[in-house]
């Protein structure tokens, strides 16, 4: 087994993509894998904190992840942040198909989302009580 060098890791072309048929929309959508920083950003977007109150925010999660991953045939992003709400109003069936493909492509599993929620709930439970 060969050990990788810093340059080999940082120079690797490790992006992947998958094409997903969306007959409801009359074609195919290409999804590209995301970077570690983009995954962190997506996971962070699933959490809301207001003061000491923290909660999970799954509203628009499908559309947010699809917007991060959807690209044209040249690799250019299809959607910007301003498109997420409009994308979320599209038919749920192709959105679910795209979200499922994107989570697999990005290494996000149901267990990952459960763990995110669990870690979040554990942190909230370990905070000191203000009720005395």
Description:
It is a single chain. By secondary structure, the protein is of the alpha+beta class. It has one domain: 2-Layer Sandwich (rbstp2171), CATH 3.30.2220.20. It has 6 helices and 5 strands. The strands form 2 sheets. A 3-stranded antiparallel sheet has the order 1-2-5. Strands 3-4 form a two-stranded antiparallel ribbon. The radius of gyration is 18 Å and the shape is globular. This is Tail assembly chaperone.
What key attributes describe this structure?
132 residues; alpha+beta; rbstp2171; three-stranded antiparallel β-sheet; two-stranded antiparallel ribbon; 6 helices; globular
Structural class: alpha+beta
How many domains make up the coordinates? 1
Radius of gyration: 18 Å
Strand content: 15-25%
Q: Low-confidence runs (pLDDT<50, min 5 residues)?
A: none
Cα-to-Cα separation, first versus last residue? 58 Å
Task: Tell me the number of helical segments per DSSP (H or I, 4 or more residues long).
Answer: 6
Helix percentage range? 40-55%
CATH class reads: Alpha Beta
> Largest sheet, order of strands side by side?
1-2-5
CATH level-two architecture: 2-Layer Sandwich
Q: What is the total tally of β strands?
A: 5
CATH fold-level name: rbstp2171
Protein name: Tail assembly chaperone
InterPro entries: TAC_Gp13-like_sf
């Amino acid at each position: 087994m060969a050990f990788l060098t810093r340059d080999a890791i940082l120079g690797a072309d490790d992006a992947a993509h998958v094409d997903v048929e969306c007959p409801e929309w009359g074609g195919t959508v290409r999804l590209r894998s995301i970077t570690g920083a983009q995954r962190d950003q997506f996971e962070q977007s699933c959490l809301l904190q207001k003061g000491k109150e923290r909660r999970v925010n799954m509203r628009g999660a499908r559309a947010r992840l699809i917007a991060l991953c959807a690209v044209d045939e040249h690799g250019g992003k299809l959607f910007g942040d301003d498109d997420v709400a409009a994308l979320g109003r599209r038919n749920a069936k192709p959105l679910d198909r795209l979200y499922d493909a994107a989570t697999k492509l990005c290494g996000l599993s149901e267990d990952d989302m459960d763990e995110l929620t669990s870690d979040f709930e554990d942190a909230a439970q370990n905070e000191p009580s203000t009720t005395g």
